[in-house]
Design a protein that fits this description.
The complex is a heterodimer of chains A (about 350) and B (about 400). Chain A has a single domain, classed as ABC transporter involved in vitamin B12 uptake, BtuC, CATH 1.10.3470. Chain A is built from 15 helices and three strands. In chain A, a hairpin with a 2-residue loop joins strand 1 and strand 2. With about 400 residues, chain B is of the alpha/beta class. Chain B has a seven-stranded mixed beta sheet, with helices on both faces. In chain B, strands 2-1-3-4-5 form a five-stranded parallel beta sheet, with helices on both faces. In chain B, helix 6 packs across helix 7. The chains are: A mainly alpha (about 350), B alpha/beta (about 400). At the A-B interface, helix 1, helix 2, helix 6 and helix 12 of A face helix 1, strand 2, helix 3, helix 4 and helix 7 of B.
């Protein structure tokens, strides 16, 4: 494989990989030496999950150009199927990292199925249907998990839907050694937390490789062509449903893996965590980072996850400050004066490229 | 080129932020109790952390918990007790992830004992972390049995959900045995569902008649006409409401509007209904609830606490505040029993307190002769009260 670093896109991609790797290495070293606070090291895994969520949603919103308002639903599918897998495979796979990997793959798989089921009918339509359907999907998943009772004992996995609200986890008929994995509305409350920062980093890297390679591939160009001009794309024979589904299902699968990572980091997790607000939060990461801008998503997700914790000194007003910071960032990045200011800095330090721009 | 530059700038910014909040507290965790930095620090004081939702939907509980804890800490510090406390309060929005963050933040501060988190879901998430870190945790109001399940260093001040469900069913069986019971509960809420499950189980065992059950979720907690009409048509004369007081206030309103007047029976989540803004408290007349704390009790301890709370925060304290107040005093009693000093590490204090807890007998706001099992569960007698003329009174 020949890598052409003169190509601007390739260069950006490789810088993105390098940036993530550098941050991981530095953070790992700092963590080993105990140089970072518990507050931050406790957030490393959620940050990795949110970064993956943001990148995967960017694939749907930024690259495919379809609005999805139920991304947390896929995260939920991944999280709970991942938890079920990890808890029930405890004796079969004693090694934590392997079990985590298997759980994440299974989480991705089930989320991909959900994405396929949602996407197949909806992506054939034009307009805002995907937004509406994914919004509903997120709510449906929340309600379904609220009804879900899952337990595991030596006879295998027991699963039950508590549709009329009359059943409890004791109706599963678990034996004495059985473990209650999901208890309806109480959620998963006895999960063994096996998620690690290293696993999170690997997930982010895999996500980056999958998404960036998809975007730069022939399929990716077809997907972007669909986004930019559907009729023109159709006229040159691009199979619309196929490429739309490809992007959407990939995005759902990655969200599922992120969900499994997130779920296995929490000892107690309820379906209500993955509500509409979480979907919007991820959408905010994507919009703030820039539609179609992958490294922008990474930075936005990281910053906006860390920010509320950094604002703890404001006590009750921190979410207010958070909102103000969000608005200021939005204004600043679109402000002509600020743009001019950055332009000037660039001219001063990087005279040559600036001249090139002028030459154009 | 612009992109690369932006990328680099953003990278350095992100990284700067990360390292900035990393370096801030490297000095603290090691030297517990040796009061560094903080201006309010008291020489030789134990560092207490309180966690609860100070913002968001459940803020009223978190606020009550930190206020109650604050009053206890102020009292203890003003007294001649050798045990002194320093309290740090953190917001968790009743969310597991945020709660873990709040806990980690407190550990960075050098916390030795955790009073919290306030809500069950958050408390369960933090309890697992606390268990592996070996920090002592006593939750004032995290009532789910999952909070303490399998964790020797986690204790509860409040009743557990199963206790409340069985307690309510026992009380009804004793006093209103032939009632036709309808239940309205929130089926996406661990607390509500947990109490409903044990209530129904115990009701069945005691031969009570549950004629109908209605459910709602967080998103449908604004209209209960369907559930109420159902209960009315089935002839229910007792409505069991194992829910928080906001939806309960709507139920009372709507039942009143449709002329349906069964006996309303709530649990500790109903506590607070009298202080709800814009709620006509006359609607709550005759509502019965199971609560460990009544602000109208006439013993000196309660009077003193209610007076102080009202002076400091301008409202009548609810059960959550009382639980937190008790939690701080329980920690004090346990420290005295175990003979801990403030210069011990969090893990050493934890082991000492875990050993001391089952030996304690404590008389507090929320119960007389409270004792703890090694599992972390409290044993105290629940108390049923009825709302009469806008205050809690003992039913006759």
């Amino acid at each position: 494989m020949k890598i052409n670093l003169r190509n601007k896109r390739t260069r950006t991609d490789f810088l993105t990989y390098a940036g993530v790797i550098i941050v991981f290495v530095v953070m790992s070293i700092l963590q080993n030496q105990g140089a970072i606070s518990r507050s931050l090291s406790g957030q490393l895994v959620p940050i990795c999950a949110y970064v993956t969520m943001a990148i995967s949603l960017n694939l749907t919103v930024g690259i495919l150009g379809e609005l999805s308002l139920g991304h947390a639903g896929f995260m939920s599918v991944g999280a709970f199927s991942g938890i079920i897998a990890a808890m029930s495979l405890q004796s079969a796979i004693p090694s934590d990292p392997v079990r985590l990997a298997v759980s994440m793959v299974l989480g991705a798989f089930f989320a991909a199925i959900a994405g396929f089921l949602v996407g197949t009918p909806v992506l054939r339509l034009r307009g805002d249907y995907l937004a509406i359907v994914t919004l509903a999907f997120g709510e449906i998943i929340k309600e379904l998990v609220n009804c879900l009772l899952v337990g595991y004992d030596e006879n295998g996995l027991h699963m039950m839907f508590n549709l009329n609200g009359q059943k409890t986890v004791s109706d599963l008929g678990l034996t004495e050694n059985g473990i209650e994995i999901i208890k309806g509305a109480q959620g998963a409350t006895s999960t063994t937390t096996i998620a690690t920062f290293t696993a999170g980093f690997i997930l982010v890297m895999v996500t980056l490789i999958v998404v960036l390679n998809l975007i730069r591939s022939r399929s990716g160009r077809a997907i972007m062509a669909l986004r930019d001009n559907r009729i023109a794309a159709e006229s040159v024979g691009i199979n619309i449903t196929k490429y739309k589904l490809m992007a959407f299902v990939t995005s759902a699968a990655l969200a599922g893996a992120a969900g499994a990572l997130y779920g296995l980091n929490m000892a107690s997790l309820q379906a209500t965590k993955f509500n509409f607000n979480t979907s919007i939060l991820v959408l905010v990461f994507v919009v703030l980072g820039g539609l179609g801008n992958i490294w922008g998503s990474i930075i936005a997700a990281t910053l906006l996850t860390v920010l509320p914790e950094m604002l703890r000194s404001f006590a009750e007003f921190r979410m207010l400050v958070y909102a103000i910071v969000l608005i200021l960032v939005m204004l600043a990045t679109n402000n002509p004066t600020m743009k001019l200011f950055f332009e000037r800095i660039r001219t001063r330090f990087f005279k040559k490229p600036a001249k090139e721009v002028r030459g154009k | 080129m612009k992109k690369i530059l932006c990328l680099l700038l953003a990278m350095t910014m992100t990284f700067g932020c990360l390292t900035a909040c990393g370096s801030k507290d490297t000095s603290d965790p090691a030297d517990n109790g040796a009061a560094t930095g903080s201006s309010e620090s008291i020489e030789g004081a134990f560092k207490l952390g309180a966690v609860g939702p100070l913002t968001g939907d459940a803020a009223i509980y978190g606020q009550a918990v930190v206020n109650g804890a604050q009053i206890a800490v102020d009292e203890i510090n003003a007294s001649d007790s050798t045990v002194k406390f320093e309290l740090n309060k953190q917001d968790d929005e009743a969310d597991g992830e945020k709660s873990k963050n709040a806990y980690n933040n407190l550990m960075d501060w050098g916390m030795q004992i955790l009073v919290g988190p306030t809500t069950s879901g958050a408390a369960t998430a933090v309890a697992a972390q606390v268990y592996s870190d070996r920090t002592f945790m006593i939750t004032p109001s995290g009532s789910s049995p999952d909070v303490i399940d399998g964790k020797d260093n986690v204790f509860q001040v409040c009743f557990s959900d199963p206790n409340q469900g069985t307690g309510a069913a026992d009380y009804i069986a004793e006093n209103m045995a032939d009632a036709k019971i309808a239940i309205i509960y929130r089926n996406d809420d661990a607390y509500s569902q947990g109490i409903r499950d044990t209530f129904v189980e115990e009701a069945e065992a005691k031969g009570l008649e549950v004629v109908t059950e209605g459910t709602f979720t967080a998103d449908t907690a604004t209209d209960f006409t369907v559930q109420l009409t159902d209960a009315q048509s089935k002839g229910a004369d007792l409505l069991f409401l194992p829910i928080y007081y906001q939806p309960a206030s709507i139920i009372l309103n709507q039942a009143n509007a449709m002329g349906y007047a069964p006996t309303f029976f709530g649990v500790d989540g109903m506590d607070g209904i009298l202080t709800l803004e814009n709620f006509d408290t006359s609607l709550a007349e005759g509502v019965m609830l199971l609560t460990p704390f009544s602000a109208d009790a006439t013993d000196d301890l309660t009077k003193n606490f209610v007076a102080k709370y009202q002076e400091a925060y301008g409202e009548i304290p609810n059960q959550f505040a009382a639980d937190a107040y008790d939690a701080v005093y329980v920690v004090k009693a346990a420290i005295e029993a175990a003979g801990c000093t403030a210069d011990m590490s969090a893990a050493d204090i934890c082991e000492a307190l875990v050993a001391a807890m089952p030996t304690l007998t404590y008389n507090g706001l929320t119960g007389q002769n409270m004792t703890w099992q090694a599992t972390g569960e409290v044993s105290k007698a629940p108390m049923a009260v009825v709302i009469k003329d806008g205050v809690y009174t003992l039913p006759n």
